[in-house]
Each structure stands twice: as structure tokens, then as C-alpha cells.
Amino acid sequence: MRGVDRINDALPDELIVEIFRHVESKSGRDACSLACKRWLGLERVSRDTIRIGASASPDNLVNLLGRRFPNVRYMYIDEHHSTSLPVPCGKRRRSSEASSSKSRFTHVSDRSVPGEDGAGSYCLTDSGMAAVGESFAKLEKLSLIWCSTITDAGLRSFAEKCRALKCLDLQACYIGDRGLASVGECCKCLEDLNLRYCEALSDSGLVQLVIGCGRALKSLGIAACARITDVAFEAVGSHCKALESLTLDSEVIHNKGFLAIAKGCSELKVLKLQCLNITDDALEAVGVHCLSLESLALYSFQKFTDRSLHAIGKGCRKLKSLTLSDCYFLSNKGIDAIASGCPDLTHIEVNGCHKIGTDGLISIGKFCTKLSELTLLYCQRIDRNGLSEVGKGCKLLQTLHLVDCAGIGDDSMCSIAKGCVNLRKLHLRRCYGVGNKGIVAVGQNCKFLTELSLRFCDRIGDEALIAIGRGCSLHHLNVSGCLLVGDAGILAIARGHPNLSYLDVSVLQNLGDNALVEVGECCPLLKDIVVSHCRRITDRGISHLSRNCKLLESCQMVYCPGITEAGVATMATSCARMKKLLVEKWKVSERTKRRSGSIINYLCLDL
Amino acid sequence: MATSSSNTNKADHSKNPPLTLRSSDGKELKIFRIVAQQSSTIMNLLDLEEESNTDVIPVSEVDGSTLEKLIELMNNHTEKSFNYLGVKERKKFYNDFFANWKILDVLNFGLVANYLGVQVIFDEACQKMADMIKSKSVEWVRKVFEIKNDFTPEEEEDLKKENKWAYERGDLDDGDDAI
After folding, report:
1. What is the mean pLDDT of residues B59-78?
2. Strand ranges inside A23-166, DSSP E
3. More confident residue, A556 or B1
């Protein structure tokens, strides 16, 4: 376009709104809204996502937000996270989502009882929920996490107003059956329902919901809801004929309930199960009725045997993705059945399944010609040669992820390197059988490799990295714990990979400053670096790095005795884009704290 | 590095001669019909001119250099290998394309893509601008877009206070360390 004097004046509203639409973070949106009154107006009208944490008066907050942002479609209320506002009862809730339900109960009993008008309440009340419904009539998705003072009445008043709701996510809430039933009555467009730790819900609520709006439901997730039993699942099987995705984590469901789902929901595409009391009969039913299945994931010590996999391999011919995690009874025969039956498989993950070994991998290599991503975690039964067939047969393999597969050796790696010419990402961790020979082969053959991770593979040394340096063009390299690697290897990497953006050389005892200097000289696009536990790195290496790598955003350098206060200061201040710097507290001078305090993370020793 | 395979569509194009676009500064650029289909504006202009391929289509709102870059990107979109790119790889592709561009150049490019009705490229330009704005301050945004701040200091302070109503989810670490 021809030049314009005032760019802002020449921009049409639609373009500005379109840019805002792509600015997903709240801080980004807030910055845009403050630019001028026009931008403020446009931003408010176009903001579609709101996230609220626990705050001082959530009901008032909802009213305020409703006035400001009329077109919100996605609302996330998570009272698990405290905001920067003080929480007077003195309890800072931990933001770890792994908190057990036990700790949740102690917090609840400490909470102040909400007042009528919301004053003194730190949790969204039923009137707040009603306000959400009043203010955000266009809401499509609502997520309530740890909202312990919302009851059935609150959800009902919300549902009556937001009839266009498509997606509801309830975690650790006390909403009961009547609340869920009202959603079934009012929200006929509901496509997506997720219930986790909703201990007040029993069969009745879910049954009424699926009777009311099950016809449109496409995705259902239920986890740790101890009172939802086979009765409810039978109702799901009857009423949710359009169901495509099911995620179940339940000890209470048995074959009876699951069979009803398998028979009733024949459109099922995605199935994720962690259910101790379901057996082969259930998966056999899936193999007979759910012929559109594309993704299957089985977790944690379930009772399934190879019979299940035979049935899946026979019936679910469209299967693309398979995840087997801690499935004790599944063996190579089962893998063979699925591999030979499902030619479209592109993603396979096997995690801790101790009966699956080399023979299973041979079947995969033989049959899964479209395989794109293979992940093997804790597979100790795969031997030196175990991946050779995969190398021969899986020409489209792009990502290979191996953790704790100590048996896999150089022969496997060479076969992979020569056969899987499209390999983009190779991640190895604690694969002690792989040495220089295998990685040299990768360097010589895998021209498209962009990510390489060799964590704690302590037989790999400089020779391998020199070959990698010559052969491919990496963006991402992690050699943490490869104790044989020294300056020569990293020098070769620096010289060969000008596009390097992520480098982790932590725990390398032989690595010195010269390597870092070279990285600084050759890798201007470096964004993230980890040099923790590198005894021989000093301020000299750090300062070269920070002077030359202007795009650095994160740096971790703890347990480096050679780096002093001065080095830390240089790194903190030289890189304008630095967002995260991890160091020991005592290495940060007052001056550095003043200038760059916001980006510094301290090593926390009291964990 | 990423594949830059030869344009396997070339054989098909010999049947349909390329169109010619003329920019505002008189530059003439060729574009194959199958590539030009991405632009609803060009298609509309073609309809108006009936079947004649010999005339040059004037694109008077767009300068030559920008038009050239746009055509290059549109050519990339029609290559077979492009359709096989996964989500991350597409993102990377556009990042590479826009690498080192100044935001005003991206804006200009986006406006041109909008004018020519190439929705995908318009989206990507907006995404790029959003990415560039993401970590910046209000002052930066005002400077780059030449925006006059029409808030009083008090109004601005009030707005900033109001904006503090939600928690900021910190950057989540890549969960690789769990394994």
C-alpha cells in the first residue's frame, strides 16, 4: 500500500480486531486496550476469553467484567489459583494440580461462609453464577475448577440464561445432580462435558443430562467421580449416539456399563481408559461395534490381555494412534495383532509394558508403514537389534522417543538412521546401549533432523557430535549428562548449526569456555541455554555468549562454581529479551536485582 | 533443513498460460491460474474480463515488491509438500517467512493480503503481528502504530488498576522432566 501518515488512522476496525483475535494472552490484550480509546473500545468488544482466579469479591468482579466484555465466549474460573490479592485466611493454596482430594477437603473446611451480597466471600457464589449467565449470554464454554461454593441453584440459573453452551468443564466442585439435570434441560447444544472429582454427582444427574441433551454430545470425560456407576453409562450408551470421544478414569465402571457404551456409541473415534474393573469383554465389544475408532489409549495396570488387542486389530481398521501405558498383561502377540490389523497407524506409544519387547517391535516394523511417531518408555525387553525392522519398514518415521531402553544398541540406531530418512526428532534418555557409532550414522543419514536429545546416554561423545555437526541442521540439542562430550563436540555443533535455538549442555564436566565462545560466534538465533552443573564454565564463556546471542530468552546456570556475580550481572543485563534466568540467590548483586529482578528465578534448595 | 522440493505443479501449468499482474509501480509479475485461485479479488477481476488471458490485470493498490513476496508465498501454498506440514511445522514455516520483518512491513503485507482476499495469508500476517505485540508494552504499541494516547493520566491509571483482576498463568515449563 502507499505510505500513510498516521498508520492507526488508516487501519480499518476489522484489521485491528483481527490482530487482537490472535493476541491470546491477557497481558497482551490489556496492553492493546490501553493504547488509545479506539483500541480500548475495539478490544473490549472483541475479547472472547476471560480467566478468573480466586479473588477478593468474585461476584462483583463478574458484574464488572460483564459490563466491559459483552462478547465473551469462553470463561474459565479456577479458584485453585490465588491472585496477587491477599488471601486473609492465611492459606496460600498450592498451584499444583496434583493435589490429592484429601488436601482439598481441609481447605474447604477453612473457608469463610459466603455472605448474601458477596461481601467477605472469596469464592464465586450462586448469585455470582447467575450473574455470569446474565452478563455473558453468548458463552460457549464454561470451566469451573475448585469452585466450592457454587451449588445446584447457581448452575441452574446460569444454564437457564446460557442456552448456547457447547462445552462444560467441572472439576472439584460440589455441584450435584439437580445442577447437572438443569444443564440437560436448558443447554441442548452441549457437545463437550468434562467431570473430574465431582463427588456430589451420582447416576441421577448424568442420566438426566444425557436424556436432555445427549443427542448433541460429542465428547465426554469422567474421572474420579465415585458415585457415577454403570447405570449412568448405560444411559450414555442409549442417548449419546453421536459420541466421538470418551475419556474414563473410574474404578466403579464394570463391563456392563462399558458394553452399553460400546454398543450404543458406534461413532466413537477416541477412547482413553483407566478403569481397573473392565476386562477383555469390553474391548472386544469395541472391536465389534466401534469401527470408526482412530485413537486408543490404555493406562495403568488394567486387566486387558492380548485378547483385547486381537479384537481391536480385527475390527478397528482405521486406528491411527495407540498408547499403552503400564499394561502388564499385553505382550508381543497383541502388538502383532494390532500392527497387522491396522495399516493406518501413525502414532504408537508403549510405556512400561514389560511383556512387550523385540518381537513386538519387529511386528511394528513389518506392518506399520505409515508410522510417523514412535515412543518407547521403560522398555527393557528390546534388545540391541530390536529396532532394526522399524528402520527397514517405517520410512515415514519423523519422531523417535526412547527413554530407559537400555537394551537398544548401535545396530538398531544405524538401521533407523539409514532407513528413516525423514527423521526430524530423535530423543534418547538413559539409553546406555547407544554409543558413537549409532549417532554417527544418524549424522550421516538424517538430513532433516532438527531436534536431537541424548540425555544421560553416557557412551556418546565428541565423535558423534562432530558427525551431527556435519550432517544436519539442528534447532534443538540436549546433551545433558553425556559425560564424554567436551569442547570438540560442542565446537562442531556450533559451527555446523547456525539455526540452533535451544542448547542444553548441563552436567558436562569436560566442557569449557571455548565451546561457549564458539556458540556465541556461530549461533545468533540461540534462545534458550542450560549450562547448569558445568564445573569448568566461567564468566568468560558467559559473557561471550551474552554479547553475541542477542535473542536469548532463558538461561539456567546453577551449580557452576566458575560463574560469579559479575557473570550473572552480564547475562541479566546484556540480553534485552531475557525472560528467565535461573541462578543461586547469593550470586545476584543488589544492583543486578534492581536492574533485572523480574526475570531472575532463584534456585530453591528447600524443595 | 526443511525441504524445498521442486515445484511439481509446473508440468500441469503448461496447459494454462500464466496470468500477468501489474503493480502500482508498473512491475509486471506472472502468476499461474491455479495459484491465483487463492485470491478472491483476482478471481473477481478475471470474471469481469471474461476469458481473455492476454491482458494484464492491474493491481493498482499494491506495490511491486510486496506483490512479489505475496505471489511467492501463494506459490508455496500450492506445493504438495506444503499440505503435509504438521501444525508446528506450518508455524515454523511462517515464522521463517516473516523472520526479521519489521512490524509495519508485516502490517502492509497483511493489508495487501486482505485487499486481494487471500484469507490464509491475512490470518498469518495478523498472527505474526499479534506475536510481535505479545510481549511488548503499551508505549511500544503506541510508538509502532503511531497511536496518539487520548487517555488522561488518571484514566490510564484507573484502567491499569482494573486490569489486575485475574491471575496471570506463568509460562508453564515443558514437562519433559517428568520422565
Report:
1. 87
2. 49-54, 74-82, 141-145
3. A556
Please name the residues in contact with A10: beta carbons below 8 A apart, sequence gap of 6 or more.
Answer: A4
Cell of A110: 477453612
Q: CB contact, 8 Å: B127 with chain A? A: yes
Note whether A557 and A584 are within 8 A (CB): no
B163 CA: distance to closest CA in chain A (Å): 7
**Residue A81: band (very low, low, confident or very high) from pLDDT cuts 50, 70, 90:** low
* Residues A184/A213, Cβ–Cβ less than 8 Å: yes
Please state, in angstroms and rounded to a whole number, the distance separating the CA atoms of residues A23 and A570: 32
Task: Give per-residue pLDDT as tens, A395-442.
Answer: 999 999 999 999 999 999 999 999 999 999 999 999 999 999 999 999
The whole-angstrom distance between residue A9's C-alpha and the CA centroid of its chain comes to: 41
Q: Which three cell numbers stand for residue B84?
A: 503435509
Rounded to 5 degrees, what are φ and ψ at A454? -130, 50
The 8-class DSSP code of residue A215 comes to G
- What pLDDT score was predicted for residue B5? 42
What is the rounded distance in angstroms from the CA atom of residue A194 to the CA atom of residue A321?
22
- Total beta-carbon pairs less than 8 A apart between chain A and chain B: 120
Residue A473 contacts B where some CB pair is shorter than 8 Å: yes
Is A7's CB within 8 Å of B142's CB? no
Sheet harboring B28-31: ordered strands across?
A: B28-31, B19-22, B57-58
Contacts of B66 in chain A (CB under 8 A): 1
- Which residues numbered 50-109 in B keep a CB inside 8 Å of some CB on A? 61-63, 66, 104, 107-108
Contact of A201 with A174, CB cutoff 8 Å: no
pLDDT at A87: 35
**Is there a contact between A31 and B136 if contact means CB atoms under 8 Å apart?**
yes
Beta strands in A89-186 (DSSP E): 141-145, 167-171
Q: What is the pLDDT of residues B12-52, one digit of tens each?
A: 444 577 888 888 888 888 888 888 888 888 888 777 666 55
Tens-digit pLDDT profile for residues A291-308: 999 999 999 878 899 999
Which residues, including other chains, have CB under 8 Å from residue A88's CB and lie 6 or more apart? none
Q: Give the 3-state DSSP-derived string for A451-475, with helices as H, strands as E and coil as C.
A: EEEEECCCCCEHHHHHHHHHHCCCC
The x, y and z cell numbers of residue A455, run together, are 540425555
Which residues on adjacent β-strands are paired with residue A295?
Answer: A270, A321
